[in-house]
Design a protein that fits this description.
The chain has 30 helices and 15 strands. It is of the alpha/beta class and 718 residues long. It is rod-shaped, with a radius of gyration of 44 Å. The two termini are 66 Å apart.
């Protein structure tokens, strides 16, 4: 089971919990036994627990000795020693063999103290025995005859009367029976309090260990999930969807963590308690065991029925939660668009639909589960009634004592509660197993973009290179997984160090895909991409991306300060590097903020404008030690003046570094050393602005659609 393997790294904690639960079960199962002793011994028997009394009068001792069988004669003789006043006291040997001594003394002690009922004259019997006129076999025959007169219940009657005879013996010796009774009640009650306190302490310790272990399991799963998702390419993230990955990392992990606590506290405890209860009932009275069997079968039938009805709904509930998260995320992310087109009512309907389906499923499962507790309580109450009914007859017949009946009821409830806990958890476990399965799906998914093996890895060669990086596309074709159509076909160009290579083309021509392939967010379908002559597939992702400064098409900022966002790639903040990068990126607006570079940026950079976000994203890339910089339509939100100033600063400050700029504006690429023109995924032109204006019609159309011929020729676009 998937849930169990989560405990593989917590074996010691599991062993400790099992040991502690066994001790707790011992404490819980001992309490009913002590309750029975308080009722039977403490109250009904005035604290007299054994037929073998702690002391005997001389007359009783001698008469019992006469009536002991030859097998028990030595046991009785060694169990008592005579005191100076003529009475006899129980020896240590007798205390060690008290159970055997009770059996040996019960009938003789009853015969002595109930001589009138047995019809025996013990004074004459003793005289005849001393004179040798009566032998032990003769005495045993008389005892057997007296016992046979008691009928089928002789053993039970003898046991009860032996306690009464022991009480009479204590009275003859002058013992205070009230004090004996109170002493027994206090002693037994003290033991019960001690066991209850020990059980409470153990329960607290088990709860602490279980919660701590489950929290570690949850933290480990979240960490592994996060690490795995970070390694995913766009293809894997899209196959799961961001909403589903969020649900798996939060709700599903929480389900597993919650059930892990229950597994340690209840699933392990319930069988121990149930098995212990069965053992204790077997020691108490097996005649009513059929009641327990019937109750357990009834619980099993109820649980199976509820699981059959509710389980299919539990399995689809997690997908419905995914759907609610997906719709919520789309609405919150796209709320400006929703408001702009007046689609609030439509989005409310979408959310209500997803929310209503989840609510109906949860209501169905909750309604089904509400039947569980009433049915279980009905079964438990019927069991109690049945035990009292049949047990009452047994008490009346003398085959069962009142205290044993109370203990039997308690043990029955313990067994039923044990199976009830198992049943309740058996309903929760499949849902948690579904959550664990969803988590496993993510953890077992290998990224399609992986580091090369150590045998072919060429990180060391790349690390030795300095200056700008030469990035070459060699007959590259690319198609997305599951698609037959190529996004890029036979793309061939080289971005040289110290030069700016611009990529331009109509919408959907594959410009951003080129940048993603360089960053290796996806692998080429055909051909190769090299950096300084090394195939990027022969480089680790860390080494490759360490050579590149990337500015995404959609500028994204993290929550934190401006300074932390700009110096995001570094382990330690460097104020000088941050300021230098911001200056090149034309992020002079930072100085006008109240706290400058210490100003807090909200998640996604929603508290700054689009142009400011782009400039901070550009500064973040420039603050790295990259050898090549990739700008994916990163100047689109900038005004022409800022755009020109930024390109001028890049040309001055980056020196021999390589620049690849994807742009829609002709003014942005006008002065690039090399312009690559894409049309429907193919390279239809490559050269300078002047060369392309003469030789590349698609480029000329784009240029003239944005600027006049005079502006293009005069350079006013700058």
């Amino acid at each position: 089971m998937r849930l169990i393997k989560n405990f593989a790294n917590h074996k010691i904690a599991v062993v400790i919990v099992v040991v502690l639960l066994a001790v707790q079960a011992f404490c819980d199962l001992s309490l009913p036994n002590y309750t029975s002793d308080i009722v039977d011994v403490g109250i009904q028997q005035s604290g007299v627990e054994h037929a073998s009394t702690d002391a005997l009068t001389e007359r009783t001792h001698d008469l019992v000795a006469i009536m002991e069988s030859e097998q028990n004669e030595s046991l009785f003789a060694d169990s008592y020693s005579q005191r100076s006043d003529g009475t006899y006291e129980l020896t240590d040997f007798g205390r060690e063999h008290r159970a055997d001594l009770d059996d040996a003394m019960s009938m003789p002690l009853v015969a002595v103290h109930y001589a009138d009922q047995t019809g025996m004259d013990f004074d004459q019997l003793k005289a005849a025995y001393d004179a040798g006129m009566v032998q032990k076999p003769d005495v045993q025959t008389m005892l057997d005859e007296a016992k046979s007169q008691m009928g089928d219940m002789a053993d039970s009657i003898v046991g009860q009367q032996a306690i009464a005879a022991a009480k009479a013996e204590y009275e003859q010796l002058g013992y205070d029976l009230n004090a004996m009774q109170m002493n027994y009640l206090l002693t037994t009650g003290g033991k019960m309090l001690g066991l209850a306190a020990l059980g409470m302490v153990i329960a607290v310790i088990v709860g602490f260990i279980a919660s701590r272990t489950a929290a570690k399991i949850g933290a480990s799963l979240r960490s592994r999930l996060f690490e795995r998702v970070l390694s995913f390419s766009d293809a894997e993230i899209q196959s799961f969807s961001a909403a589903s990955l969020i649900t798996r990392g939060t709700n599903d992990v929480q389900q597993v963590q919650m059930v892990s606590v229950m597994m340690l506290r209840m699933i392990l405890y319930a069988p121990i308690l149930a098995i212990g209860g069965i053992i204790m009932i077997a020691r108490t009275n097996l005649s009513m065991g059929w009641i327990i069997v019937a109750a357990v079968l009834a619980i099993a039938v109820v649980m199976l029925f509820l699981m059959k009805v509710a389980m299919p709904k539990f399995k689809i509930m997690q997908k419905l939660i995914d759907r609610v998260n997906l719709v919520s995320r789309e609405i919150l992310t796209g709320i400006p668009v929703v408001r702009a087109f007046g689609r609030e009512a439509h989005e409310e309907e979408r959310f209500d639909e997803a929310n209503l389906r989840l609510m109906k499923t949860q209501l169905f499962t909750n309604r089904v589960m509400t039947f569980m507790m009433p049915l279980m309580m009905l079964i438990m109450n019927l069991v109690s009634v049945a035990i009292i009914w049949f047990g009452g007859h047994a008490v009346d017949a003398g085959t069962l004592q009142t205290g044993d009946l109370i203990a039997f009821i308690t043990y029955s409830m313990v067994i039923i509660m044990g199976f009830l806990m198992i049943g309740m958890l058996s309903i929760m476990l499949p849902r948690a197993d579904v959550a664990a399965q969803r988590i496993d799906e993510v953890l077992k998914t290998e990224s399609s973009i992986a580091d090369p093996s150590t045998e072919v890895c060429r990180d060391d060669e790349l690390a030795a290179r300095t200056g700008g990086a030469e990035i070459a596309f060699n007959d590259v074709s690319f198609r997305y997984p599951g698609s037959q159509d190529c996004v890029l076909e036979h793309v061939d160009f080289t971005a040289k160090p110290g030069q700016t290579t611009a990529i331009i083309g109509s919408t959907g021509s594959g410009k951003s895909t080129v940048i993603k392939l360089v960053e290796r967010f996806a692998d080429v379908s055909e051909g190769s991409i090299t950096i300084d002559g090394i195939d990027i597939r022969d480089l680790s992702l860390h080494a490759l991306r360490g050579q590149l400064g990337y500015v995404p098409q959609k500028a994204f900022l993290f929550s934190g300060t401006v300074e932390e966002n700009v110096d995001y790639a570094a382990d330690e903040l460097n104020a000088e590097r941050v300021r230098a990068a911001a200056e090149i990126a034309q992020a002079d607006f930072v100085d006008d903020m109240d706290e400058g570079f210490k100003t807090e940026i909200s998640q996604g950079g929603t508290n700054v404008s689009g142009g400011q976000r782009q400039r901070l994203a550009i500064a973040r890339a420039l603050a790295t030690d990259a050898r090549a910089f990739l700008f994916d339509d990163s100047f689109s939100a900038l005004d022409y003046k800022t755009d020109a100033a930024l390109r001028h600063a890049l040309a001055e400050q980056l020196g021999g570094k390589t620049q690849i700029i994807v742009a829609q504006r002709i003014s942005t690429v006008l002065h690039a050393n090399q312009i690559v023109v894409l049309d429907e995924g193919r390279v239809v032109g490559c050269g300078t602005h002047a060369e392309l204006m003469d030789a590349c019609e698609p480029y000329r159309e784009i240029a003239l659609s944005q600027l006049s011929e005079e502006e293009l020729e005069g350079g006013d676009a700058q």
